[in-house]
Design a protein that fits this description.
Length: 502
Protein backbone atom coordinates (compact mmCIF):
# COMPACT_ATOMS: atom_id res chain seq x y z
CA UNK A 1 0.00 0.00 0.00
CA UNK A 2 1.33 3.43 -0.89
CA UNK A 3 1.68 6.02 1.85
CA UNK A 4 1.08 8.82 -0.63
CA UNK A 5 -1.59 11.46 -0.08
CA UNK A 6 -3.17 12.74 -3.29
CA UNK A 7 -4.85 16.00 -4.08
CA UNK A 8 -7.97 16.13 -6.24
CA UNK A 9 -5.88 17.04 -9.29
CA UNK A 10 -3.42 14.22 -8.66
CA UNK A 11 -6.32 11.77 -8.38
CA UNK A 12 -7.64 12.91 -11.77
CA UNK A 13 -4.16 12.54 -13.22
CA UNK A 14 -3.87 8.97 -11.92
CA UNK A 15 -7.25 8.07 -13.45
CA UNK A 16 -6.24 9.70 -16.72
CA UNK A 17 -2.93 7.89 -16.82
CA UNK A 18 -4.61 4.51 -16.28
CA UNK A 19 -7.13 5.14 -19.06
CA UNK A 20 -4.41 6.40 -21.41
CA UNK A 21 -2.66 3.09 -20.86
CA UNK A 22 -5.64 1.01 -21.88
CA UNK A 23 -7.64 0.62 -18.67
CA UNK A 24 -11.26 1.54 -19.51
CA UNK A 25 -13.11 4.01 -17.29
CA UNK A 26 -15.82 1.43 -16.56
CA UNK A 27 -13.21 -1.15 -15.56
CA UNK A 28 -11.83 1.20 -12.91
CA UNK A 29 -15.36 1.73 -11.67
CA UNK A 30 -16.02 -2.02 -11.64
CA UNK A 31 -12.99 -2.75 -9.47
CA UNK A 32 -13.70 0.19 -7.15
CA UNK A 33 -17.29 -0.88 -6.53
CA UNK A 34 -16.30 -4.50 -6.03
CA UNK A 35 -13.78 -3.48 -3.37
CA UNK A 36 -16.42 -1.57 -1.41
CA UNK A 37 -18.78 -4.55 -1.59
CA UNK A 38 -15.97 -6.88 -0.56
CA UNK A 39 -15.28 -4.73 2.50
CA UNK A 40 -18.94 -4.82 3.55
CA UNK A 41 -19.21 -8.59 3.14
CA UNK A 42 -15.82 -9.79 4.40
CA UNK A 43 -14.23 -7.12 6.56
CA UNK A 44 -17.33 -5.53 8.04
CA UNK A 45 -19.13 -8.90 7.98
CA UNK A 46 -22.43 -7.09 7.81
CA UNK A 47 -25.21 -9.50 8.77
CA UNK A 48 -28.36 -7.36 8.70
CA UNK A 49 -30.54 -7.19 5.62
CA UNK A 50 -31.41 -3.68 4.46
CA UNK A 51 -28.74 -1.75 2.56
CA UNK A 52 -29.42 1.54 0.83
CA UNK A 53 -26.98 2.94 -1.74
CA UNK A 54 -27.16 6.67 -2.41
CA UNK A 55 -25.88 7.22 -5.95
CA UNK A 56 -25.02 10.67 -7.26
CA UNK A 57 -24.74 11.81 -10.85
CA UNK A 58 -20.99 11.31 -11.27
CA UNK A 59 -18.40 8.57 -11.07
CA UNK A 60 -19.03 8.15 -7.34
CA UNK A 61 -22.61 7.24 -8.20
CA UNK A 62 -21.35 4.75 -10.76
CA UNK A 63 -19.24 3.10 -8.10
CA UNK A 64 -22.42 2.87 -6.04
CA UNK A 65 -24.24 1.02 -8.83
CA UNK A 66 -21.46 -1.57 -8.91
CA UNK A 67 -21.63 -1.92 -5.11
CA UNK A 68 -25.38 -2.54 -5.38
CA UNK A 69 -24.90 -5.24 -8.03
CA UNK A 70 -22.32 -7.12 -5.97
CA UNK A 71 -24.39 -6.95 -2.78
CA UNK A 72 -27.82 -7.66 -4.29
CA UNK A 73 -27.52 -11.48 -4.16
CA UNK A 74 -26.87 -11.35 -0.41
CA UNK A 75 -28.90 -8.41 0.94
CA UNK A 76 -32.05 -6.42 0.32
CA UNK A 77 -30.47 -3.58 -1.64
CA UNK A 78 -32.11 -0.33 -2.69
CA UNK A 79 -30.37 2.11 -5.03
CA UNK A 80 -31.35 5.75 -4.58
CA UNK A 81 -30.68 7.81 -7.71
CA UNK A 82 -30.64 11.17 -5.94
CA UNK A 83 -30.08 13.18 -9.14
CA UNK A 84 -31.17 10.79 -11.88
CA UNK A 85 -29.12 8.11 -13.59
CA UNK A 86 -25.37 8.89 -13.36
CA UNK A 87 -24.21 10.89 -16.37
CA UNK A 88 -21.70 8.72 -18.19
CA UNK A 89 -21.91 6.19 -21.00
CA UNK A 90 -22.75 2.75 -19.65
CA UNK A 91 -24.61 3.91 -16.53
CA UNK A 92 -27.98 2.61 -17.76
CA UNK A 93 -26.52 -0.85 -18.39
CA UNK A 94 -24.90 -0.88 -14.94
CA UNK A 95 -28.23 0.01 -13.37
CA UNK A 96 -30.04 -2.76 -15.24
CA UNK A 97 -27.38 -5.26 -14.15
CA UNK A 98 -27.98 -4.36 -10.50
CA UNK A 99 -31.74 -4.68 -10.99
CA UNK A 100 -31.37 -8.07 -12.66
CA UNK A 101 -29.80 -9.39 -9.46
CA UNK A 102 -32.59 -8.07 -7.28
CA UNK A 103 -31.64 -4.50 -6.42
CA UNK A 104 -34.58 -2.09 -6.20
CA UNK A 105 -34.22 1.35 -7.76
CA UNK A 106 -35.82 4.55 -6.49
CA UNK A 107 -35.33 8.12 -7.63
CA UNK A 108 -34.96 11.35 -5.71
CA UNK A 109 -33.88 12.07 -2.18
CA UNK A 110 -35.65 9.89 0.39
CA UNK A 111 -37.93 11.59 2.89
CA UNK A 112 -36.47 9.35 5.58
CA UNK A 113 -34.27 6.29 5.85
CA UNK A 114 -35.05 2.85 7.22
CA UNK A 115 -31.90 0.99 6.14
CA UNK A 116 -29.55 -1.02 8.33
CA UNK A 117 -26.53 0.31 6.40
CA UNK A 118 -26.06 3.28 4.07
CA UNK A 119 -23.49 3.36 1.27
CA UNK A 120 -22.60 6.96 0.42
CA UNK A 121 -21.90 7.34 -3.30
CA UNK A 122 -23.21 10.89 -3.78
CA UNK A 123 -20.37 13.36 -4.26
CA UNK A 124 -16.88 11.92 -3.77
CA UNK A 125 -13.81 14.09 -4.38
CA UNK A 126 -15.50 16.52 -6.77
CA UNK A 127 -17.62 18.31 -4.17
CA UNK A 128 -17.05 21.86 -2.98
CA UNK A 129 -19.34 24.08 -0.95
CA UNK A 130 -21.68 23.46 1.97
CA UNK A 131 -24.05 20.61 2.76
CA UNK A 132 -26.24 22.93 4.82
CA UNK A 133 -29.65 23.69 3.30
CA UNK A 134 -29.37 20.77 0.86
CA UNK A 135 -31.28 17.46 0.80
CA UNK A 136 -28.10 15.73 1.96
CA UNK A 137 -28.30 17.66 5.23
CA UNK A 138 -31.71 16.10 5.87
CA UNK A 139 -30.29 12.66 5.09
CA UNK A 140 -27.48 13.17 7.58
CA UNK A 141 -29.97 14.26 10.23
CA UNK A 142 -31.99 11.09 9.58
CA UNK A 143 -28.84 8.96 9.82
CA UNK A 144 -28.04 10.51 13.18
CA UNK A 145 -31.56 10.02 14.50
CA UNK A 146 -31.65 6.37 13.50
CA UNK A 147 -27.95 5.71 14.16
CA UNK A 148 -27.48 4.13 10.74
CA UNK A 149 -23.88 3.09 10.00
CA UNK A 150 -22.38 4.63 6.84
CA UNK A 151 -19.73 3.31 4.47
CA UNK A 152 -18.41 6.14 2.29
CA UNK A 153 -17.10 5.64 -1.22
CA UNK A 154 -13.78 7.51 -1.59
CA UNK A 155 -14.79 10.40 0.69
CA UNK A 156 -17.77 11.20 2.88
CA UNK A 157 -20.05 13.42 0.79
CA UNK A 158 -19.61 17.09 1.62
CA UNK A 159 -15.99 16.86 2.78
CA UNK A 160 -13.52 18.92 0.72
CA UNK A 161 -11.05 16.57 -0.97
CA UNK A 162 -8.00 18.82 -0.67
CA UNK A 163 -8.46 20.10 2.88
CA UNK A 164 -10.99 18.06 4.88
CA UNK A 165 -13.12 21.17 5.38
CA UNK A 166 -16.83 20.51 5.92
CA UNK A 167 -19.94 22.58 6.54
CA UNK A 168 -23.05 20.65 7.46
CA UNK A 169 -24.70 18.50 10.12
CA UNK A 170 -22.42 16.38 12.25
CA UNK A 171 -21.95 12.98 10.60
CA UNK A 172 -19.43 10.17 11.00
CA UNK A 173 -18.81 7.24 8.69
CA UNK A 174 -18.16 3.76 10.00
CA UNK A 175 -15.57 3.39 7.24
CA UNK A 176 -14.31 5.11 4.12
CA UNK A 177 -13.03 3.05 1.18
CA UNK A 178 -10.76 5.16 -0.99
CA UNK A 179 -8.87 4.20 -4.13
CA UNK A 180 -5.18 4.28 -5.00
CA UNK A 181 -4.08 6.46 -2.09
CA UNK A 182 -5.52 8.50 0.75
CA UNK A 183 -6.61 12.09 0.06
CA UNK A 184 -6.05 15.25 2.05
CA UNK A 185 -9.74 15.23 2.92
CA UNK A 186 -9.04 12.14 5.03
CA UNK A 187 -6.41 13.96 7.12
CA UNK A 188 -7.58 17.58 7.39
CA UNK A 189 -10.16 19.01 9.77
CA UNK A 190 -12.86 17.97 10.43
CA UNK A 191 -12.77 15.31 7.71
CA UNK A 192 -10.26 13.21 9.63
CA UNK A 193 -12.69 12.80 12.51
CA UNK A 194 -15.56 11.89 10.14
CA UNK A 195 -14.00 9.16 7.99
CA UNK A 196 -14.05 6.21 10.40
CA UNK A 197 -11.76 3.36 9.41
CA UNK A 198 -9.78 4.39 6.33
CA UNK A 199 -9.19 1.63 3.80
CA UNK A 200 -7.05 2.19 0.70
CA UNK A 201 -8.13 -0.17 -2.08
CA UNK A 202 -5.87 -1.06 -4.98
CA UNK A 203 -7.92 -0.75 -8.17
CA UNK A 204 -4.99 -0.95 -10.58
CA UNK A 205 -4.26 2.75 -10.95
CA UNK A 206 -0.56 2.27 -10.38
CA UNK A 207 1.54 5.27 -9.39
CA UNK A 208 2.85 7.90 -11.80
CA UNK A 209 5.88 9.49 -10.23
CA UNK A 210 6.12 10.20 -6.53
CA UNK A 211 3.57 12.35 -4.75
CA UNK A 212 5.41 14.85 -2.59
CA UNK A 213 2.99 14.27 0.29
CA UNK A 214 2.56 11.15 2.43
CA UNK A 215 1.72 9.82 5.87
CA UNK A 216 4.53 8.42 7.99
CA UNK A 217 4.53 4.64 8.12
CA UNK A 218 6.00 2.37 10.79
CA UNK A 219 8.82 1.03 8.61
CA UNK A 220 10.16 4.48 7.76
CA UNK A 221 9.91 5.64 11.37
CA UNK A 222 11.97 2.67 12.53
CA UNK A 223 14.62 3.33 9.88
CA UNK A 224 15.07 6.86 11.20
CA UNK A 225 15.66 5.86 14.84
CA UNK A 226 19.20 6.83 15.90
CA UNK A 227 21.46 4.00 17.02
CA UNK A 228 24.37 4.02 19.46
CA UNK A 229 28.02 3.35 18.63
CA UNK A 230 29.83 0.73 20.68
CA UNK A 231 32.66 3.23 21.19
CA UNK A 232 30.50 6.33 21.47
CA UNK A 233 30.45 8.91 24.24
CA UNK A 234 27.92 11.50 25.38
CA UNK A 235 29.22 14.30 23.17
CA UNK A 236 28.68 12.14 20.09
CA UNK A 237 25.01 11.78 21.07
CA UNK A 238 24.54 15.49 20.63
CA UNK A 239 24.43 18.60 22.79
CA UNK A 240 21.17 20.50 23.17
CA UNK A 241 20.68 23.92 24.72
CA UNK A 242 17.14 24.86 25.77
CA UNK A 243 16.49 28.59 26.12
CA UNK A 244 13.29 29.47 27.93
CA UNK A 245 11.50 29.90 31.20
CA UNK A 246 10.02 32.93 32.92
CA UNK A 247 8.52 33.89 36.25
CA UNK A 248 5.14 32.27 35.56
CA UNK A 249 6.26 29.42 33.25
CA UNK A 250 9.34 28.03 34.91
CA UNK A 251 8.58 24.38 34.22
CA UNK A 252 8.19 24.50 30.43
CA UNK A 253 11.91 24.47 29.51
CA UNK A 254 12.53 21.68 32.01
CA UNK A 255 9.95 19.52 30.20
CA UNK A 256 11.81 20.15 26.93
CA UNK A 257 15.17 19.35 28.51
CA UNK A 258 13.96 16.11 30.11
CA UNK A 259 12.35 15.02 26.83
CA UNK A 260 15.58 15.73 24.95
CA UNK A 261 17.51 13.51 27.36
CA UNK A 262 14.96 10.70 27.22
CA UNK A 263 15.02 10.81 23.42
CA UNK A 264 18.77 10.20 23.45
CA UNK A 265 20.66 13.50 23.56
CA UNK A 266 24.05 13.20 25.26
CA UNK A 267 24.12 16.53 27.07
CA UNK A 268 21.37 19.06 27.74
CA UNK A 269 21.83 22.57 29.14
CA UNK A 270 19.08 24.90 30.30
CA UNK A 271 19.47 28.66 29.95
CA UNK A 272 16.84 30.34 32.11
CA UNK A 273 16.43 33.86 33.56
CA UNK A 274 17.72 34.78 36.98
CA UNK A 275 15.53 33.46 39.77
CA UNK A 276 13.96 30.65 37.73
CA UNK A 277 16.48 27.87 38.39
CA UNK A 278 15.54 27.57 42.06
CA UNK A 279 11.88 27.20 41.12
CA UNK A 280 12.24 24.29 38.71
CA UNK A 281 14.50 22.00 40.79
CA UNK A 282 16.17 20.50 37.73
CA UNK A 283 17.55 16.98 38.19
CA UNK A 284 21.34 16.50 38.28
CA UNK A 285 21.28 15.06 34.76
CA UNK A 286 20.60 18.54 33.33
CA UNK A 287 23.02 21.48 33.42
CA UNK A 288 21.39 24.79 34.37
CA UNK A 289 22.67 28.27 33.63
CA UNK A 290 20.94 31.35 35.00
CA UNK A 291 21.20 34.22 32.58
CA UNK A 292 20.61 37.86 33.40
CA UNK A 293 17.04 38.98 33.68
CA UNK A 294 14.53 41.24 35.31
CA UNK A 295 10.96 40.59 36.43
CA UNK A 296 11.49 36.92 35.59
CA UNK A 297 12.29 37.52 31.89
CA UNK A 298 15.51 36.50 30.17
CA UNK A 299 18.07 39.03 28.98
CA UNK A 300 21.13 38.09 26.95
CA UNK A 301 24.88 38.51 27.22
CA UNK A 302 28.10 37.17 25.73
CA UNK A 303 28.14 34.34 28.29
CA UNK A 304 24.80 32.98 27.06
CA UNK A 305 26.02 33.28 23.48
CA UNK A 306 29.12 31.25 24.39
CA UNK A 307 27.04 28.48 25.96
CA UNK A 308 24.64 28.32 23.03
CA UNK A 309 27.52 28.27 20.54
CA UNK A 310 28.85 25.09 22.16
CA UNK A 311 25.61 23.23 21.43
CA UNK A 312 24.77 21.21 18.34
CA UNK A 313 21.11 22.28 18.48
CA UNK A 314 19.18 25.09 20.17
CA UNK A 315 15.58 24.88 21.39
CA UNK A 316 14.15 28.32 22.10
CA UNK A 317 10.75 29.39 23.35
CA UNK A 318 9.31 27.01 25.97
CA UNK A 319 7.96 29.21 28.77
CA UNK A 320 9.97 32.19 27.51
CA UNK A 321 7.23 34.69 28.25
CA UNK A 322 6.31 38.01 26.69
CA UNK A 323 9.12 40.15 28.10
CA UNK A 324 12.01 38.90 25.94
CA UNK A 325 13.36 41.09 23.14
CA UNK A 326 13.64 39.82 19.53
CA UNK A 327 17.39 40.41 19.84
CA UNK A 328 17.63 37.15 21.80
CA UNK A 329 16.34 35.13 18.86
CA UNK A 330 18.52 37.14 16.49
CA UNK A 331 21.59 36.28 18.57
CA UNK A 332 20.70 32.59 18.58
CA UNK A 333 19.98 32.36 14.86
CA UNK A 334 23.21 34.23 14.21
CA UNK A 335 25.11 31.21 15.50
CA UNK A 336 23.99 29.20 12.48
CA UNK A 337 22.91 26.21 14.59
CA UNK A 338 19.77 24.18 13.86
CA UNK A 339 17.15 25.91 15.99
CA UNK A 340 13.79 24.58 17.17
CA UNK A 341 11.44 27.53 17.73
CA UNK A 342 8.43 26.89 19.93
CA UNK A 343 5.81 28.82 21.92
CA UNK A 344 6.96 32.38 22.72
CA UNK A 345 9.92 31.89 20.41
CA UNK A 346 7.40 31.99 17.56
CA UNK A 347 6.24 35.41 18.74
CA UNK A 348 9.83 36.62 18.47
CA UNK A 349 10.10 35.05 15.03
CA UNK A 350 7.12 37.09 13.85
CA UNK A 351 9.09 40.24 14.76
CA UNK A 352 12.38 39.01 13.34
CA UNK A 353 13.60 39.66 9.81
CA UNK A 354 15.63 36.85 8.28
CA UNK A 355 17.35 39.45 6.12
CA UNK A 356 20.32 39.39 8.50
CA UNK A 357 21.84 36.58 6.44
CA UNK A 358 21.60 33.76 9.00
CA UNK A 359 21.93 30.26 7.64
CA UNK A 360 20.49 28.58 10.74
CA UNK A 361 18.04 25.80 9.83
CA UNK A 362 14.77 26.52 11.65
CA UNK A 363 12.18 24.03 12.82
CA UNK A 364 8.93 25.73 13.82
CA UNK A 365 6.41 23.96 16.06
CA UNK A 366 3.21 26.07 16.06
CA UNK A 367 -0.24 24.93 17.08
CA UNK A 368 -3.14 26.23 14.98
CA UNK A 369 -3.45 29.54 16.85
CA UNK A 370 0.26 30.29 16.60
CA UNK A 371 0.27 29.32 12.93
CA UNK A 372 -2.59 31.73 12.25
CA UNK A 373 -0.65 34.56 13.90
CA UNK A 374 2.49 33.75 11.94
CA UNK A 375 0.47 33.90 8.70
CA UNK A 376 -1.71 36.89 9.66
CA UNK A 377 -4.84 34.75 9.30
CA UNK A 378 -7.93 34.31 11.44
CA UNK A 379 -7.91 30.52 11.17
CA UNK A 380 -5.81 27.79 9.57
CA UNK A 381 -7.83 24.68 10.41
CA UNK A 382 -10.10 25.06 7.37
CA UNK A 383 -7.09 24.16 5.21
CA UNK A 384 -4.19 22.86 7.26
CA UNK A 385 -2.18 21.51 4.30
CA UNK A 386 -2.26 24.96 2.71
CA UNK A 387 -1.22 26.61 5.98
CA UNK A 388 1.71 24.23 6.41
CA UNK A 389 2.92 25.04 2.89
CA UNK A 390 2.57 28.78 3.54
CA UNK A 391 4.59 28.53 6.75
CA UNK A 392 7.35 26.62 4.93
CA UNK A 393 7.49 29.21 2.17
CA UNK A 394 7.20 32.37 4.26
CA UNK A 395 9.77 31.40 6.89
CA UNK A 396 11.97 29.07 4.81
CA UNK A 397 11.76 26.54 7.61
CA UNK A 398 10.76 23.02 8.51
CA UNK A 399 7.35 23.10 10.18
CA UNK A 400 5.34 20.91 12.53
CA UNK A 401 1.76 22.18 12.41
CA UNK A 402 0.66 20.55 15.65
CA UNK A 403 -2.68 18.99 16.40
CA UNK A 404 -4.47 15.75 15.68
CA UNK A 405 -2.66 14.37 12.61
CA UNK A 406 0.16 16.91 12.86
CA UNK A 407 1.48 18.00 9.47
CA UNK A 408 5.23 18.16 9.00
CA UNK A 409 6.43 20.41 6.19
CA UNK A 410 9.98 20.18 4.87
CA UNK A 411 11.57 21.04 1.53
CA UNK A 412 8.19 21.42 -0.14
CA UNK A 413 6.90 18.04 1.06
CA UNK A 414 4.14 17.44 3.62
CA UNK A 415 4.07 14.40 5.89
CA UNK A 416 1.18 13.50 8.19
CA UNK A 417 1.78 11.91 11.58
CA UNK A 418 -0.85 9.18 12.20
CA UNK A 419 -0.02 8.58 15.89
CA UNK A 420 -1.39 10.29 18.97
CA UNK A 421 -4.44 10.48 21.20
CA UNK A 422 -6.76 13.26 22.42
CA UNK A 423 -5.41 12.85 25.95
CA UNK A 424 -2.18 14.52 24.78
CA UNK A 425 -3.94 17.89 24.60
CA UNK A 426 -2.51 18.94 27.95
CA UNK A 427 -0.25 21.81 29.09
CA UNK A 428 3.40 21.09 28.33
CA UNK A 429 2.80 18.50 25.61
CA UNK A 430 4.28 20.84 23.01
CA UNK A 431 7.32 21.53 25.21
CA UNK A 432 7.98 17.79 25.30
CA UNK A 433 7.73 17.60 21.51
CA UNK A 434 10.14 20.53 21.04
CA UNK A 435 12.73 18.78 23.21
CA UNK A 436 12.34 15.55 21.25
CA UNK A 437 12.85 17.37 17.94
CA UNK A 438 15.98 19.05 19.29
CA UNK A 439 17.35 15.75 20.54
CA UNK A 440 16.89 13.96 17.22
CA UNK A 441 18.49 16.87 15.36
CA UNK A 442 21.46 16.73 17.73
CA UNK A 443 21.81 13.00 17.03
CA UNK A 444 22.26 13.67 13.35
CA UNK A 445 18.84 13.47 11.70
CA UNK A 446 18.05 16.04 9.05
CA UNK A 447 15.33 18.57 9.97
CA UNK A 448 12.51 16.86 8.07
CA UNK A 449 13.22 13.41 9.47
CA UNK A 450 13.79 14.76 13.00
CA UNK A 451 10.49 16.64 12.95
CA UNK A 452 8.48 13.74 11.53
CA UNK A 453 10.02 11.06 13.77
CA UNK A 454 9.64 13.25 16.86
CA UNK A 455 5.94 13.78 16.16
CA UNK A 456 5.46 10.05 15.50
CA UNK A 457 7.38 8.97 18.63
CA UNK A 458 5.65 11.67 20.72
CA UNK A 459 2.29 10.28 19.61
CA UNK A 460 3.24 6.79 20.73
CA UNK A 461 4.42 8.19 24.07
CA UNK A 462 0.93 9.63 24.38
CA UNK A 463 -0.55 6.18 23.80
CA UNK A 464 1.73 4.72 26.49
CA UNK A 465 0.54 7.41 28.90
CA UNK A 466 -3.11 6.90 27.96
CA UNK A 467 -2.86 3.17 28.58
CA UNK A 468 -1.57 3.89 32.07
CA UNK A 469 -3.55 6.97 33.10
CA UNK A 470 -6.61 7.10 30.83
CA UNK A 471 -7.91 10.65 30.56
CA UNK A 472 -5.62 11.87 33.37
CA UNK A 473 -2.49 12.27 31.23
CA UNK A 474 -0.13 15.16 32.04
CA UNK A 475 3.03 16.23 30.22
CA UNK A 476 5.43 14.45 32.56
CA UNK A 477 3.62 11.20 31.74
CA UNK A 478 4.63 11.69 28.11
CA UNK A 479 8.29 11.92 29.12
CA UNK A 480 7.92 8.77 31.21
CA UNK A 481 6.46 7.03 28.14
CA UNK A 482 9.26 7.91 25.71
CA UNK A 483 11.37 4.80 26.44
CA UNK A 484 8.50 2.32 25.99
CA UNK A 485 7.28 4.24 22.94
CA UNK A 486 10.68 3.77 21.33
CA UNK A 487 10.25 0.01 21.69
CA UNK A 488 6.90 0.29 19.93
CA UNK A 489 8.56 2.20 17.09
CA UNK A 490 11.30 -0.44 16.91
CA UNK A 491 8.62 -3.16 16.75
CA UNK A 492 6.86 -1.26 13.92
CA UNK A 493 3.59 -1.10 15.82
CA UNK A 494 0.84 0.23 13.57
CA UNK A 495 -1.35 3.07 14.89
CA UNK A 496 -5.08 2.37 14.68
CA UNK A 497 -5.67 5.59 12.76
CA UNK A 498 -3.33 4.62 9.92
CA UNK A 499 -4.98 3.44 6.69
CA UNK A 500 -5.31 -0.26 6.00
CA UNK A 501 -5.23 -1.86 2.56
CA UNK A 502 -7.29 -4.28 0.52
Amino acid sequence: MTTQIWTKDQTKAQDGHAMANGVPFLSLMEVAGSKVAQYIRTRLKFEQRQIEVLAGKGANGGDGLVVARYLAPYYDVTVRLVDGVPRFDGAEAMLRAAQSLGAQVKTGWPADLAADLLVDGVFGTGFHGSVNNTPLADIYESINRRQIPVVAIDLLSGVAADSGDYHGPSINALATITFGASKWGHWGYPGASMRGELVVADIGLGVIGESTDCWLDARTAKEWLPSLSQLGHKYQRGRVVVVGGSKNMAGAPLLSAMAALRTGAGLVTLIVPQGVADRIAAPPTILVHEGPGSHGSLHWSDEETRLAAAADVIVVGPGLGQGVAPAVLEALLGLGKPTVIDADGLRLLKQYSRGTGTSAPMILTPHSGEAARLLDLQDVDQDRPKAARQLMDRYQATVILKGAYSIIGDMGKLTVNPTGTPEMATPGSGDVLAGMVGSLLAQGLDPGAAAALAAYWHGWAGMVAKNRYGQSVVATDLIDGIAKARRWVEDQACPSSAPTSM
